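Reopening: Aspartate 1-decarboxylase still failing for me.
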Amino acid sequence: MTEATRLFMYGKIHRATVTGADVDYVGSITVDPLLLAAAGIYPHTMVDVVNVTSGERIQTYVIEGPAGGGDICLNGAAAHKFRAGDLAIIMAYEQVPLSQLPGRVSRAVHVDGRNRLVFVDKHVTPSLDDLGRNSRLGEKYRSVPEAEKA
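Support: Ran it again with your exact input. Result attached.
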């Protein structure tokens, strides 16, 4: 018998600033590869992209932009849902056997206003017996200090 699996959010780029929206491109989201590496996201894999500014949510695949450029560009039809300056969260998932979920790490990449990496949070998935010991209820987004945005 095959073990049941769950979709697990293993990496995200949190509150990145959208740098462009190109409706004439074939599709996808262009992302700085330094951010992809920090989140563990591979090019050509599916991601969910949430527009924090408008509430829109899309599913697309990732392509690499130039390293260190801070690019976050929505392409093709997705460009209708995002504008330069919007805040976005890019989330990647993997199918994981239930027995491998406890102890599995999910990474959240935090960036400054120019999409430069500031820090990475790592959250360890608890076992079912340990649920409730690390409640994140009411946890607010830790904004990047102004000095780090410059």
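The mean pLDDT is 91. If you still see a failure, please send the error message rather than a screenshot.
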